[in-house]
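Q: Fold this one first, please.
A: Sequence and structure below.
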Amino acid sequence: MKQETFRKRKPKIVVIGGGTGLPVILKSLKEKDADITAIVTVADDGGSSGVLRRSFNAVPPGDLRNVLTALSEIPELQREIFQYRFRSDDQSLSGHTIGNLIISAMADMRGNIYEAIQLLAKMMHVKGHVYPAAEEPLNLHARYMDGTTQCGESQIPKKGKMIDVVSVTCVEEERPVQASRKVVSAIMNADMVVLGPGSLFTSILPNIMIPAIGKALIETEGKVVYISNIMTQLGETEGLNDADHVKVLHKHLGTKFVDIALTNIGDVPQDYIEQEENEEYLLQVEHDFKGLKEEVPMIISDDFLLLTGNKVYHNGEKVAEEIFRTAFNSQRKMKEYL
């Protein structure tokens, strides 16, 4: 009887990151019978998010907006309105999305970003939970291999140097960075914690460099999965293969905490690599099976490519299926062990 009850419980899957890759995976995971929690970076300082961050001295809303939209079950038209971006010639509203303005206004009304996001999640019929990694904007700092430093998520890749390590600090005061409420408990109670996909140094690491989140990733009994990027990124990961990505994660927390690496082995067509519109992305990330085996106990490799228009994405449906199956099997094995 206990075994049957257990099998009916939804696997608890926590996804951590930011950028454009995270919503792709979340949108597909939403269709699975899983209890989803998204933990979203708050170190962005570029574009519309950066302007609103400086104007309101508040958490940048862009990544949170995309995650809310991905997990929302409101009609398509309402999602399109939430994601609508004003044209560049609209003067004071130039480049802003309606969703960014709504999130900033709601945070101002409620007095904090956490309550604002929870209220919006209810209004948007979000399937799952969405938490900012911290409840205040953070500064991202990078030290390059040559010993020089740079502050600012949007500025770090522009130096064109190899990054050694990154860290985060509070914007206004010199005090320890605190994780947002419920973030640590979500990680500790998860069956699986997924990192990425997303920019390694500027979307994933800003979250895990929050001390309480890093500690929880090391201590959780849930399996930690890293989804390797498909393409290298200018100013971030040139010359790094998939094993190198995992090594960077382990270096930052000082221990091997990733249990599973999910990596693409499908070949990206050359004409996609040469697209000028994708100049931020340089070459396909090479697969180093031997190197990965030295870093993680388990590797999931397959053709995870989705080629749309002139851009390369992860096939969210295939990735979500692998994540869900592995989380469910891990959950079942834990029950059998107990």
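Q: Good. Now the second chain.
A: Here it is, same layout.
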Amino acid sequence: MDIIRIEQLEIFAYHGCNEEEKRDGQKFYVDANLYTDVMTPGLSDDLEDTVNYAKACKFINKFLTENRFDLIEAVAEQTTRALLKEFPKITKVDFTINKPNAPIKLPFGNVAVSVSREWHKAYLSIGSNIGDKEGYLNQAVDMLYDDENCKVGAISKFIQTKPYGPVEQDDFLNGCVEIETLYSPQELLKAVNAIEAAANRTREIHWGPRTLDVDIVLYDDEIVADSNLFIPHREMHKREFVLEPLVQIAPYAINPISKKTAEQLLDELRGQSENVNSGCAGCQGCAMRK
């Protein structure tokens, strides 16, 4: 990806923990790499096709002077996210806030914090089998639209599916939503849990009925294995109700563990189901006859 560089942008602002910093202010210097398409404006020579770096500088200056933070870590994090939200053509930002007059009682040249933030692509599986199923799924999508840290892309058609697991319950309505998000995986988990809570989701029975279920299926090409979060979803290759809507909107989305596309996983799952239904277990005799 191409880059527009901003170097040593001088800003006088009031960030710091000490009272004198809050009262008197000081100079900060910002370095920023704005990742964006430069080829298109390079060929068109049209300002509308590029990120206006003068406007970006004014935005950074305005944000740093209108907000006050105790930590320059917060300055870097909040300014970077604000930039990505304000300028749609920017896909990623490397941001450094320099504080050369930090209150350190020793000789030093500079103190700085650098962060790199970008929009991440994720796929969410949504499902409901209680009450107004379609209403709950639409509520989840609406809440994603309302979240300033998410941009909703493609939305699959909703499909009716049989429940997964041993619990007797009503059929599900399932779908898949593509989003771009500034959230980290753990932040996104908190966000989708909040969406579930807004639909009065409870977790009384494993694989039991629920008003709304929102699962993170894929997040870029990342592999996450935490105590409360696994990405890609550990059961996605076994669940047709996850794969079918995903294939509708992203057939070539890749599971970073198996290295297989959603379309390949769905074809394999349906092939296994056909073998089971026909009484074939994929025995050695079948393999020899091929």
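Q: Anything worth noting on the second one?
A: The radius of gyration is 24 Å.
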